[in-house]
Every structure is written in C-alpha cells, then in structure tokens.
Amino acid sequence: MRQFKLFLIIFVSVVVLYSCSPADGNKTGHEYMPDMAHSIAYESNVYGNYYLNTWDSASVFLRKDLSGVRLPVKGTIPRGYAGYMNADASQFEEIHNTLRGGTHMNSIAVPVNSHVPYHYTDTEDERTRASQEIINNPFPITEKGLANGKALYDIQCGICHGEKGDGLGYLVSDANPNAKYPAAPANFLQDTFYNSTNGRYYHAIMYGKNVMGGYADKLNFEERWQVIHYIRSLQAKEKKLVYSASTNTFNPSYGVPEKQFKANLATRQTDIAPMPADSAKVQTPAPTESHSGGGSHDE
Ligand code: HEC
What we know:
The protein is mainly alpha-helical. Among the domains are: 10-66, no CATH class; 124-263, Cytochrome c-like domain (Cytochrome Bc1 Complex, Chain D, domain 2, Orthogonal Bundle). The protein is 37% helix and 0% strand. The chain has helices at residues 2-19, 63-66, 82-87, 92-99, 124-133, 143-156, 158-161, 191-194, 198-207, 221-238, 258-267, 276-281. The radius of gyration is 30 Å and the shape is elongated. Bound molecules: heme C. Residues 156-157, 159-161, 171, 183, 185-186, 200-201, 204-205, 209-212, 215, 227 line the site of heme C.
C-alpha cells in the first residue's frame, strides 16, 4: 500500500511537471498563471498565421495575400470622429465627404485631436525644404478663421512679433521697462517675409528658430494655418492690399478666399462614389445628381 502511494505521488508529479514543460517545437508549453506577462498582440496590418489554414478551400489564403494591408472592419469609425457620429447622424455625410476629400470645404481629413504628421526635421536644410515644398494653405480664408487667427496670434506671437507683425512686440519694445529679450523677433513687414512661402511660417511654428521655441503644442493644425492667414492679412494691410474671405489681391498662392473656394467647389467634379452603406442611413443625393454639388457647408 505504501509503495502504491509513493508510486502514485511520483506518477502525479511527473505528469504535472511534464505538463508544465517549456514550449518547444509544436508545443506551446504551460505556464502557471501567466496573467498579463504576454499580451496577445495583433499586427494591425498583417494577417496572422491563424489565417494560414486549410479548413476549407474558401479560407485558404496565399502568403502573398496575407502580407498585404488589412482593410478596416466595416463600419469602423476613425479615431476622433466617434463624438460626431454619436452626436448627430445628420453629420454622417459631411464626415464621409471630409474623409474622402470630397465636397467638404477643406477637403482634408484632420483628426479631432489634430495630430497631423509633419515629415520635416528641425534643421536649416529642412527649413529650406519646407519653404520650397509647402505652398498652399489647406484652409480657405474665412472670416471666422481670420478672427481666430488674430486671437491666437495676439496671444502666442504678438508679444514678440508685434500686434502689427513689425517685430516690435511688448517683450522687446521701448514701452516695456524690463525689455531684456536677447534676440530681435522677425519683422514680417519686409520683403523677405512678404515673398516667403507659407512653408517658412509653418516650419517656424512647428520648431521655432534659434531662441524662438516651437508652437506645435500650443496651436493645432487648423489654428497654425489660421495664424498664417492672419499674418498674411497683416502683411497685405501694410502693402495696402486686401487679404480677406472675399478677396485676395496680395498673392493668390498664399490663400484662397472662401468666396472663390465655394465657386470652385460648385464646378468641381469628383469621381468618388458614395459608399453603398451611406445611402441606407443618410439621404444622399440620388445617384444621377453630382456628388460634388453640396457646397452649402460653411466654416
Ligand atoms: C518669445 C518671442 C517669440 C514668440 C512668442 C514668437 N516668436 Fe517667432 N521669432 C522670434 C525670434 C527671436 C525670431 C528670430 C529667430 C532668428 O532668426 O534667429 C523669430 C522668427 C520667426 C519667424 C521667421 C523664421 C525664419 O524662417 O526666419 C517666423 C515665421 C516666426 N517667428 C513666426 C512666429 C509665429 C507664427 C509665432 C506665434 C505662433 C511666433 N513666431 C512666436 C521670437 C518669437
């Protein structure tokens, strides 16, 4: 009997220990309470080996296909848009248009958290490259944008660059008894800045320059461009030209007035068809109507 007990204990221990054996070859092994030591990570853009099966002919994929980028699950809502979607279903169409670069005023998708990647680094070469490559202000000139641009400019930039853009902000002005700022802020009312592309301004906002720090964390994507519009309007004023929501006699490449933008939009054609799922949920225009017809949204 004692021998049998001993045998039983040894047998059970061997079985238990064996079942805890480490992973090896085709064996996953066992772990006592792994908790969260290993995450079950999914590669978002690649199908996992799970899909490499031969259960039936319909579920056999080639490795070539599996390494492609996955489409988002149907009905997926981009990050930052959930609030919109929940708040007001009538915005569905507008959001989809924005995301597809369709009829929305801006034709660009800006996440609500405004995290738009910037692919230039903080060097002088890259400053030059940004100045050469970033030309268009992606937002049309609107009254609202100029007003917001002014408010932001006065708070964030005017203290140094001056409320008129002349480089004589309070921090460096004679009116300030404690003016000790070590460098002269750029004066935007001179030829080099009149003639610089928007990229020079955008890059300066992203990284600053020498003693000027960057403002990427203070201004979101749209606000940066609103500030640039506002600086252009200050420059235009100095040159006795107009840079407003209705007219731009300063330089057409710096910004498109809202009025002109809407006129362009009305005649614009797009080959982007509405997603079939939309038509069920939203009253999209009948298929015969042009998808580009909705220029009524103003912002
Ligand atoms: C604390 C003071 C200060 C503030 C605030 C400030 N700047 Fe500057 N800025 C400077 C100084 C100083 C320079 C000159 C840097 C140099 O050339 O060494 C400069 C230069 C610039 C330039 C020229 C860069 C170039 O390519 O030569 C731009 C454009 C500019 N600032 C835009 C802005 C904008 C837009 C804001 C607000 C979002 C802003 N700055 C806020 C101090 C400031």
